[in-house]
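lol ok so funny story. i was supposed to be doing the assay writeup but got distracted and ended up predicting the structure for this chain instead. priorities right. anyway since i did it might as well share w the group, maybe its usefull for someone
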Amino acid sequence: MTITQQAIKKNIKKNIKKNINAMLKISFYSFIPCLILYILFFLEFDRSLALAIHGTLRTIHPSLRLMISHESQIISDVFSPAHLLTLFIFILLMAFWFNFKYPELQKFNKKLFFISTAGILSFIFAGLVKTILARYRPEAFLTSGEYGFHFLSFNRLYNSTPSGHVTLSAALLTALGYSFKKIWLWGLFFIILFFIAVARLILEAHFLSDILFGFYLGTISTYWVKYYFYDRHTN
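and the output, tada:
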């Protein structure tokens, strides 16, 4: 290896180390306000909001309540973790196929790998956190008064945080936003995420803090995957 090659390799390692340190700082500084808000919502707002939603739905006209619940269920079904994971796996398989069949489409294939990896990684992270924390869902709070964390459980009733719907949707939409770089897309994505979050609250599947945590986890997972695919060799 020549002196020039050694210098280039050393410079690449230096840039990677510098970028990783920057990523860790961004992750830490964004996690702190997320954690503070999570604790604040957990202690002060989650229960009162869940009770308010529950009470409001019981006081409105039955036909309107049925319509709201039905529309919320449709949104929830469309953006369910199972559907989104299937989509991510399909995109990943398509990326492998395109990479083999059409190597000239390298930039497009890279976007497919980026989007699918971000989604699958966020699914894994969300599943791990759900199982470890095992937070009681609003359903358990509203029916039996259970609130807080059960810890280490696969029971659906104890898998409230983070919201899998919001985590995977945030990962998908953030990855699409990074990939296609259209300002109007970001606005559309936030609107979609808003309706997903509202639907999960109406269905009494999550607390507000679960939504917040899911948004953070989905976006930060995508941010790290973006670093791996696009930013690790940049200054």
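Residues 3-231 form one domain. The chain has a mean pLDDT of 90.
back to the writeup now i swear
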